[in-house]
# Entry
Amino acid sequence: MGSVVGTELDVRIRLPVVAGDRIEAFADLVSREGGRLEHVVRSHMERGDAIVGRAWVPAA
# Structure
């Protein structure tokens, strides 16, 4: 699956992820402005949030 052309992603890696870790990814819509959708994104595992940040996706 590819991303939408023009998508921007700004994330921070907070915890190491190793083979065998179970990860769940989440994206929550927080705003619709200027033809873009802003999402809060995170990848969560048992030890906490491994990756956190924001994504901006062009609205269709």
